[in-house]
Amino acid sequence: AQKVTQAQTEISVVEKEDVTLDCVYETRDTTYYLFWYKQPPSGELVFLIRRNSFDEQNEISGRYSWNFQKSTSSFNFTITASQVVDSAVYFCALISNSGYALNFGKGTSLLVTP
Amino acid sequence: ETGVTQSPTHLIKTRGQQVTLRCSSQSGHNTVSWYQQALGQGPQFIFQYYREEENGRGNFPPRFSGLQFPNYSSELNVNALELDDSALYLCASSYPDRGDSAFFGQGTRLTVV
After folding, report:
1. Residue of B nearest to A100 (CA)
2. Strand pairing partners for B7?
3. What integer is the mean pLDDT of A20-42?
4. At B7, is the pLDDT very low, low, confident or very high (cuts 50, 70, 90)?
5. Sign of the CA dihedral B37, B62, B17, B103?
6. Of the candidates A4, A91, A100, which has its C-beta nearest B56's C-beta?
């Protein structure tokens, strides 16, 4: 069984604050892939990052960074100096080599106010 | 933009009716997956098509069915609509390697009344 938990339902920050979105996953497979997607009000899921289970290097892309820790089964996402345009629902997802489907968490709704 | 397009964008149907949703995959992608996203929830996997064959299926009843065409576009059909079928339906295209990133369309918002 695979499961993704995003414990934070809603987060509200003021512009320029840093914010971290948590993601904890469960899988029995040794080969798996983790993803983050952004869903703005328009509804489209926008791909942000993919990480495979053998690559624990953290990644930074502009104001976005990701921290993957297999020891704690976590794949957290940090936005530095948040902006109003970052307001959206963010989903963490998992797919393993034994499955066909992306397993999504319930999402974290991020609101960035001016 | 991902290159994945879905139609229509919004739809209202009556309980008991049938509906067909359409998806054009991104160029080069031969795998299409469909997801249902209820309000306030994460997307749930319905099924996946690869080379015109159903490749995997989630926990959805048989009244949810699909097709994939030689150009890799796809349809999702839902028969005997129920009120709980009201949701955002998302189509994703990818290569068949599970590690490849799936790119989503903008979705079809279905309302069943």
Report:
1. B56
2. B22
3. 94
4. very high
5. positive
6. A100
Strand duo B10-13 + B108-112: pairing? parallel
Q: Which residues of B touch A103 (CB under 8 A)?
A: 45
Confidence of residue B99 (pLDDT cuts 50, 70, 90): low
B1 falls in which pLDDT band (50, 70, 90)?
low
Nearest to B99 among A33, A100, A106 (CB): A33
Which residue, among A29, A35, A45, would best test binding to B if mutated, counting the most B CBs under 10 Å from its CB? Answer: A45
Return d(Cα A109, Cα A23) in angstroms, integer.
Answer: 13
Q: Which residues pair with B91 in a beta bridge?
A: B34
A-chain CB neighbours of B42 within 8 Å are: 4, 91, 93, 104-107
Question: What pLDDT, on a 0 to 100 scale, did the predictor assign at position A18?
Answer: 98
Are the C-beta atoms of A93 and A69 separated by less than 8 Å? no
Q: Do A33 and B44 touch (CB under 8 A)?
A: no
Contacts of B66 in chain A (CB under 8 A): none
Residues in chain B: 113
In angstroms, what CA-CA distances link B55 with A22, B43, B79? 31, 18, 21
Task: Look at B42 and A106 and tell me if their CB atoms are within 8 Å.
Answer: yes
Task: Convert the pLDDT of each residue in A34-75 to its tens digit.
Answer: 999 999 988 899 999 999 999 888 888 999 999 999 999 999
DSSP secondary structure code for residue A28 in this structure: S
